[in-house]
Specification:
CATH superfamily of the largest domain in chain A: Cytochrome c-like domain
Number of strands of chain B: 44
Distance between the termini of chain B: 99 Å
Number of helices of chain A: 9
Radius of gyration of chain A: 17 Å
Largest sheet of chain B: 9 strands, mixed
Strand content of chain A: under 5%
Largest sheet of chain A: none
Oligomer: heterodimer
Strand order of the largest sheet of chain B: 6-7-8-9-16-17-12-11-10
Shape of chain A: globular
Number of domains of chain A: 2
Helix content of chain A: 55-70%
CATH topology of the largest domain in chain B: Methylamine Dehydrogenase, Chain H
CATH architecture of the largest domain in chain B: 7 Propeller
CATH architecture of the largest domain in chain A: Orthogonal Bundle
Chain lengths: 158, 666
């Protein structure tokens, strides 16, 4: 069933853009859209963001091993621009981030970055401050989840 | 079933939303049907404009035809070019000499065509070297770099090579402030505030011959000087430089140089500086910099190391420099065709401030200052301001003009070009670029007389615009028709990398002056062969000089014997052709450098070490005639100490000889 939806959506998408995948990519990569969609988009869920994560089950307590895996990803792919404090470096500091966004939002943003920069009101407001589009670091789903666990650890989840 | 219907609907809604978002990008809607005809130049027809585009980290400059976007020539400037022998032939090596020795690469960011009375005169084009600070002058009759001058006391020559309206001066500025060359540079980096200074150079340009000379340098506070433009008309006599990092940070500038609400545009009264210079207020400073000149008569370059420069101190000589606050790390600093308006583009700002030259003059007369920065008066922002363009887009970078009262500004972050009216600061039109546009160019767009038929955007990211080519994608420009009220995208064209600033001019200004060949009678290269009868091979110790000629389709001599292992062989090749479009190439097996590409009437020299005994063919690389493939020769290398006599010949068919018996000299 799920497959069917995806296929249908995909085929509609092709028809709409008249050019196939590259046009969809274009829309995603085009920062010009950032301005066009500021007014909001009723179908866009600002709590969930946009991407493959619709519902992530997060246990009440910390998975320390997973957080430590996430920390490794952080040090390679994220720490150049994000501090663990509240201080903004290139992008915002991570302190308190799990309180500001849902797990789904964070994992969608970290894996579907360009599309969300173009659509998400919170991201667009942040872009006006930072003026650097967050690069897509091509995180795997597992990396995104582990990174979220590290964010939880950083925010004091035990 | 119901579920399927829902998903169908969802799919439709989703696709309709997507349709909306991809609508402006669809080739059928973003590009009008007549775009192709507007950019089409039929085979055999000339383009309407030359577009001189900086080659960025390639170190070169390129010439394109517009509106077709066809690449006409890559002009080697600061980087070696083995294809043309640039930096490899003995004649061109001195062009890349610096106070650091031979430097084979640089980063060319900006191009500027020479002007007379504020109009492009088509004589020369200048380019800047950003890494090892230099300015180059390219002759537009030969499309060749004829002069390169190095800049002392500088690092990162970015605000260059912009010129005054009669090409009196070409300027340079230091992007990375550093301790001056005569000071001890071995200091702690965090002593930036005390020890680091910014120098602005004014290079005079000879009225007739274009020869460059550093007239004076102005010592300024240590900040990052970014871009510049000369005043014109009423503001002729002034120069404007944008600067950032007024925080004077020395680390993580991405964050630390973006703290202050306002940085500066520095207004320089260079006429006043000239007066001080005349009055002897300059200080002579011992420095070292290279000045390299290429001659079209000797067909070779000379490099001279100069040892002195005159410094004017902006802190002591109060009325040369003034700072004008400009929001958020200004990048572009552009002066409109009337010379009245100076547009600053704070790359982190959400507005564009436009300053008025008249107001700046009044503010100076009234001393409407907000104190000083490092001893230089800071004019009150409001006292200098004509007005602000509000909410024009994100990340304004550069502005050019159409001469009809409009300005065109690029926005890096929001990927667009915005047209606005200078008088009332209203946004008139906006078009997307694909993607993240840096510089833009309107033909004559920084002069008094723009020729505003087209606008070209030079993009930093191309992503999905061209067929993929691995991790590094095509560099690109986009051409817009701006002859109407609305800007219209008509062409994407790839460029050499990476395009920064570019200039364009009507082809008529340049095309009829093109040199077709060099007159062989005027060739004064010391190693010229004026006619096949004068060719020879001369041994001087372990050096062997081959005076060689070439013409369709043979070399003379083409048989050379008696060269010994360990010899240094110099092939001085003269192209005897006296017609257009007949260069000859010269390639030698095992040469550790490159080929020669010799224009008609020219002499060029390739140095080749004969490393070990054997037979070495050489040949012509540039297809010259139906018998080009026959254009070849042999050089025989014998062991060191061999008694094979030195002989050379062309077209002598000797009887079969014993390999140890030399053929008779011709």
């Amino acid at each position: 069933m799920k497959k069917l939806i995806i296929t249908l959506s995909a085929s509609c998408l092709f028809a709409a853009c008249g050019g196939g995948k590259s046009d969809a990519d274009k829309a995603a990569a085009d920062p010009y859209d950032a301005q066009k969609t500021e007014t909001g988009n009723p179908s866009y869920d600002p709590n969930r963001g946009e991407g493959k994560f619709t519902k992530v089950d997060i246990p009440a307590t910390l998975d320390a091993a997973l957080a430590s895996t996430g920390e490794k990803t952080y040090s390679v792919k994220c720490s150049s621009c994000h501090k663990l404090t509240e201080e903004k470096l290139v992008g915002p500091g991570w302190k308190g981030v799990v309180g500001r966004h849902t797990a789904e939002w964070i994992m969608n943003f970290s894996t579907n970055t360009d599309a969300m920069i173009n659509k998400d009101p919170k991201v667009q407001a942040m872009l006006e401050i930072c003026l650097v589009r967050m690069p897509n670091q091509n995180l795997s789903d597992d990396e995104a989840r582990a990174l979220y666990e590290f964010m939880r650890k950083n925010d004091g989840v035990k | 079933m119901k579920k399927i219907t829902i998903s169908l609907l969802a799919g439709l809604v989703f696709s309709m939303l997507l349709m909306q978002s991809c609508k402006p990008k669809n080739a059928g809607t973003a590009v009008n049907a007549d775009a192709a005809s507007k950019a089409y130049v039929a085979p055999g027809k000339y383009d309407e404009f030359y577009n001189f585009v900086s080659g960025g980290f390639s170190g070169q400059m390129s010439a394109y035809g517009l509106p077709s976007g066809r690449l006409l020539r890559v002009i080697p400037v600061f980087s070696v070019d083995p294809e043309k022998g640039w930096g490899y032939s003995e004649e061109t090596k001195p062009m890349l000499n610096t106070s650091h020795g031979f430097v084979p690469w640089d980063d060319l960011h900006h191009t500027e065509l020479s002007q007379t009375n504020g109009e492009i005169d088509g004589r020369w084009i200048f380019g800047n070297a950003n890494n090892t600070p230099r300015v180059a002058r390219i002759d537009l009759t030969t499309f060749r770099t004829n002069e390169i001058i190095e800049l002392p006391n500088s690092a990162g020559n970015h605000s260059s090579p912009f010129i005054t309206e009669n090409t009196e001066y070409v300027v340079a500025g230091t992007r990375f402030s550093v301790p001056p060359d005569d000071a001890n540079g071995d200091v702690a980096i965090n002593t930036y505030k005390q020890n680091f200074k910014g120098y602005i150079s004014f290079i005079s340009v000879g009225k007739e011959d274009g020869k460059m000379d550093i007239a004076f340098q102005i010592k300024c506070p240590g900040v990052n000087f970014d871009l510049s433009h000369a005043g014109k008309g009423k503001s002729h006599g002034w120069f404007f430089f944008s600067c950032y990092n007024t925080e004077q940070a020395n680390t993580l500038l991405e964050v630390n140089a973006s703290q202050r609400d306002k940085d500066f545009i520095m207004a320089v009264n260079w006429k006043k500086a000239e007066e001080y210079l005349k009055a002897g207020k300059g200080r002579k400073q011992a420095v070292k910099y290279a000045h390299n000149v290429y001659s079209d008569k000797t067909h070779s370059a000379t490099s001279e190391i100069k040892t002195e420069v005159t410094i004017l101190d902006a802190k002591e000589l109060k009325d040369i420099c003034y700072f004008i606050p400009c929001p958020k790390s200004p990048h572009g600093c552009d002066v409109d065709p009337t010379g009245e308006y100076i547009v600053g583009s704070g790359k982190l700002a959400a507005l564009i401030p436009v300053f008025s030259f008249d107001k700046i003059q009044k503010a100076i007369a009234d001393k409407a200052y907000d104190g000083e920065f490092e001893g230089i008066p800071v004019i009150k922002y409001d006292a200098a301001l004509h007005g602000e363009v509000k909410k024009p887009g994100l990340g304004p970078l550069h502005t050019e003009f159409d001469g009809k009262g409009n300005a065109y500004t690029t926005f890096f972050v929001s990927s667009e070009v915005v047209k606005w009216s200078i008088a009332d600061l209203k946004v008139l039109d906006r078009v997307p670029t694909y993607y993240s546009v840096g510089h833009l160019c309107v033909p004559g767009g920084d002069s008094k007389k723009p020729n505003a038929k087209y606008l070209i955007a030079y993009n930093k990211i191309t992503k999905d615009r061209y067929l993929p080519t691995g991790p590094e994608l095509a560099q690109s420009a986009q051409l817009y028709d701006i002859s109407g009220d609305k800007m219209q995208l008509i062409l994407d064209f790839p460029t050499i990398g990476e395009p920064h600033y570019a200039q364009a001019v009507a082809a008529d200004v340049i095309k009829n002056k093109s040199v077709k060949f060099f007159k062989i009678d005027e060739n004064s290269n010391p190693y010229v062969s004026k006619g096949e009868g004068t060719t020879k091979v001369v041994r001087e110790g372990t050096k062997v000089h081959v005076y060689m000629s070439c013409i369709r389709s043979h070399f003379s001599p083409d048989n050379i014997e008696g060269v010994r292992a360990g010899d240094e062989v110099y092939f001085h090749v003269t192209n005897l052709e006296q017609d257009w479009d007949v260069p000859h190439g010269f390639a030698m097996k095992g040469a550790n450098n490159a080929e020669l590409l010799i224009m008609p009437g020219e002499t060029q020299t390739l140095k080749w070490i004969a490393e070990k005994p054997g037979m070495y063919p050489f040949y012509c690389t540039d297809f010259c005639s139906a018998l080009h493939q026959e254009m070849q020769g042999y050089l025989r290398v014998s062991p060191a100490g061999s008694n094979v006599p030195l002989t050379f010949s062309t077209g002598k068919n000797y009887p079969k000889a014993d390999s140890t018996v030399a053929a008779p000299a011709k």
